[in-house]
Design brief:
Elements (H helix, E strand, L loop, with lengths): L8 E4 L9 H10 L5 E6 L11 H10 L4 E6 L7 H7 L3 E4 L7 H10 L3 E6 L5 H5 L7 E5 L15 H9 L9 E5 L4 H10 L3 E4 L10 H9 L2
Parallel strand pairs: 1-8, 2-3, 3-4, 4-5, 5-6, 6-7, 7-8
Length: 222
């Protein structure tokens, strides 16, 4: 996944897709202009919910024609990174709170030939992740508490979001910022103005809002 200075990355969150016709959903979203697919793994431990199964993630990674990222909301994520690399994931996100040795896990992801990303909860400070940012290709800034779709954007995250953008290409860093949580058209416009490149699209901006092609075109034009 990549974006130029004038482009957005629009990343449908596949946990919001209709799994009764997953092949059609993937094809329709790709035709609508999705830049990639965002795949959530939840273990019921790190977050109080269960997300996509391993077989779902494997199928999408192996059948999609756009890049897939895996967002690991799971304890001890280092156990799984080789599996997702084998599936064909292009980006793997881990949470620092879930990993005792997150720097080692990020380095391992890169050694596997996958882009490394760190996911930052609303209550996690910029200072907590600052030292490992040089290891990251992407930073997933959570603007809701992880685990559930349909939540409201938490406004106190905005100053941290700006800090992450400001630090993204200096002091040894070279990452892009992606926002996950309540990415409505209004919030996408706001975060784009800050310099955010990527947006995970769920029920606030894509699913349940009519034809995907129309919704994606409107978001692209913001």
């Amino acid at each position: 996944m990549s974006a130029t200075s004038s482009e957005k990355l629009l990343l449908p969150s596949m946990m919001c897709a209709d799994f009764g016709c997953l092949r059609d959903e993937v094809a329709t979203l790709e035709a609508a202009g999705a830049d990639g697919f965002h795949l959530d793994l939840m273990d019921g431990n790190f977050v109080p919910n269960y997300g996509m199964g391993l077989q779902d993630i494997e199928w999408i990674c192996k059948n999609a024609t756009v890049p897939c990222d895996v967002h690991m909301m799971a304890a001890d994520p280092g156990r799984y990174v080789a599996k997702f690399a084998e599936y064909g994931a292009k980006v793997i996100y881990v949470h620092p709170e879930a990993d005792t040795h997150v720097a080692r896990t990020l380095a391992t992801i890169k050694e596997l030939g996958v882009k490394a990303g760190i996911a930052i909860n609303p209550g996690t400070s910029f200072a907590t992740v600052e030292d490992v940012l040089p290891l990251c290709d992407y930073v997933l800034a959570m603007t809701v508490s992880p685990g559930f779709a349909g939540q409201k954007w938490i406004d106190f995250v905005n100053p941290k979001l700006q800090k992450l953008v400001d630090a993204s290409h200096k002091d040894g860093n070279n990452y892009e910022v992606v926002v996950d949580g309540n990415c409505s058209p209004e919030r996408i416009a706001q975060a784009s103005a800050m310099g955010v490149k990527g947006f995970v699209l769920g029920t606030a901006g894509l699913f349940g809002h009519g034809p995907y092609e129309q919704s994606m075109a409107a978001l692209r034009a913001l």
